[in-house]
Fold this sequence. Notes:
One of its GO terms (molecular function) is DNA-binding transcription factor activity. Pfam families: GntR. InterPro entries: Tscrpt_reg_HTH_GntR, WH-like_DNA-bd_sf, WH_DNA-bd_sf. This is GntR family transcriptional regulator. It comes from Pedobacter psychroterrae. By secondary structure, this protein is mainly α. The chain has a domain at about 10-75: Arc Repressor Mutant, subunit A, CATH 1.10.10.10. Helix content is about 60%, strand content about 5%. It contains 5 helices and 2 strands; from the N terminus they run αααββαα. The protein has a two-stranded antiparallel sheet. It is elongated, with a radius of gyration of 17 Å.
Amino acid sequence: MEFRDKEAIYLQIAAYVSEQITLGRWPAEEKIPSVRDLAIELQVNPNTVVRAYEFLQNRGVIANKRGIGFFVEPDARTKIKEYNKERFLNQDLPEFFKNIYLLDIKMEDLMKRYDQFVLAHYSGK
Length: 125
């Protein structure tokens, strides 16, 4: 995983975990990787993964079953989509709109590229 400079690493890890859940790679009510295992996989400090897991736990995405590990909550996908949609609409979309306006990009061009992107990256879903 390549980390970006402009966002805290624990938030990027939380986004990675959320993506795994949203894509169904980590199904509802199933155990997710331990803090230690994910820290090793992502080559980060375990405390950073703990912080990401706490962030997701506070949003009701995962739950800690004491002595067993962390599990995906039954409605995790819905909660992730609600949180990410709100964040995208309020933070990312205004900047995106500004750029397409300034660059004079037409909606037809965007739709064509969007369809190509989905086909290339998520057609095996």
